[in-house]
């Protein structure tokens, strides 16, 4: 994941990955499931940016809603004022179901949402008089964002490497739920889930029974190792351990939430409700920058017992234009049955990937939920051996598929003690992608895989 060379003529060059020698192309327009480049190429956006463009690009209904909002109120500060778009979006996302998520705060990025969730978990326990709860446990092979708090929780060694000495002190990580690699021969899903829950319990006890504030996890792991999908019962077992020790369960659904797995929240598959949930990306489909922290009544009640307010003001929080985009996108989710469509198209994409690539000697696993799927590639299907470090298979696949007019999200794996393993490519197209676009996607992937492995297998 090296940046584009510093001598590049592009002023923004330091922000981009060098995909095996390729410089970033310039996108000039986007419509539906496609983005258009300045050299005239039309690219199927099979990763919706980074799982962002949930309803596709250029939807006039959202553009009109944002324009109307900008015309009447483009910004105000929120220390004492609110706006109707933010309040309306809040009502669309949280309700007053007992035990459910009851409050929302709106920010701009996923990293800010997770950073706020860290602070919220900490403040909750301070308000309750449990100030010794300073520790947060997360998982290996996780990604939680770019800020120092988020990097402190992230379980990808290359993301942590430069910053290790300045990361948060009171954090640690346990194993992810990654059955393809770590469920042992003959072990049932139930036993595997329990083994991981036991590991969490051991870690809580190691840190100190009353010292852990929260356990952070992506409900379905996203970019780190490619759609790590929990085995049945995993989150129930985890929730039980959290409850036993009073630890808050924080689910990061920045990438996997908002319909992407075929349910509005990925935790709906798991039979648990988090104490805090973070969402972003697909929440308003990229029409504005928007993320949110959804908060349970339990946490709100804790704050009410103490100071009564979350110490977390930000300049652009509850931004009216971003909230208006969120309201418009969530309305389209309802009117266009976006989540149901995602579930159907997700099943279709999975089936076509399995039909076309399921038996390929370098395909280790096709996994994920809804329209949130990955293929993990291996050197050897039997041993699950990864490719050698110097061989950037994911980047080569990314390029080969892009050359065929389809953009995917690639993850450069390789074995490390507590990090990423196999190379993978991830698919997270708009949730309303059509069946013919899925055919186009699968065809490009198949041809890209043939090109790369034709010479490498
Ligand atoms: N959490 C997860 C699971 C993510 O996938 C991401 C971004 O990819 C983030 C947090 C950070 O979000 P952002 O890039 O909007 O700060």
Automatic annotation (TrEMBL):
GO terms for molecular function: pyridoxal phosphate binding; transaminase activity. Keywords: Pyridoxal phosphate. It comes from the Eukaryota. One of its GO terms (cellular component) is cytosol. It holds the Pfam family Aminotran_3. Belongs to the class-III pyridoxal-phosphate-dependent aminotransferase family. PANTHER family: AMINOTRANSFERASE, AMINOTRANSFERASE CLASS-III. This is Aminotransferase.
